Amino acid sequence: MPHAPFRETRLLRDRAARRWGSPTIRRWLCVYCGAPATEVDHFYPYTHRDSSLPHNLVPACGPCNRDKSNTDPVEWMTAVGVPPDRIAWLLAIYAEPTFRATRNLRIDPVPLTYRSTPRR
Ligand SMILES: [Zn+2]
After folding, report:
1. Where would I find the H helices in the chain?
2. pTM above 0.85, yes or no
3. Least CB-packed of 28, 66, 99, 100 within 10 Å?
């Protein structure tokens, strides 16, 4: 999927900030791998109903966002090796409309095996 135009990206960042805090104040880490987050990911794919509401927007790094693409999040996270407790945490957050991160994220880095790159 092509990158969203800047205006849309800024809108998504503002919406994501309602749950994760301002990225200019908070440290945003990729919720999947723990690397510094530079993008906003649609947890359920772009075409999903209500996909651009705040509860569906999570901080992500570019490599995770690109590899995940339009995949079902649980299917993708399982395939690339996101720890099961992290998957459960993300599903719980998605289901909690009033979730707001109250401090900098603490997400331990984990190596993921992307589908778009060959296993070594
Ligand atoms: Zn990542």
Report:
1. 6-20, 62-68, 73-80, 84-94
2. yes
3. 100
